[in-house]
Amino acid sequence: MEIEGFRCLVCEKKLSLNETEYICPYCGGNLDVVYKYKRISRKIFEKNRDFSIFRYEELLPVKNNGRIPLKIGFTPIYKFNLLGLNNLYLKDDGRNPSASFKDRASAIVLLKAMDKKVKVIIGASTGNAGSSMACLSASVGMPSIIFVPETAPQGKVAQLLIFGSKVFAVKGTYDDAFDLCLEVSKRFKFMFNRNTGFNPWTREGKKTVSFEIVEQLNWRIPDYVFVPVGDGNIISGVWKGFKDMYYSKLIDKLPKIVAVQSNKSNSVYKTWMKYFYKKKIKKVDWRKIKIVKVKATTIADSISVDLPRDGIAALRAIIESNGFAIEVSDLDIKRSIRKIAVNTGIFSEPAGATGFAGVEKAYSLGLIKKNDIVVTIITGNGLKDIKCIFDICKSPLRVEKDIEKVEKLIKRVI
Question: Global pTM?
Answer without folding.
Answer: 0.94
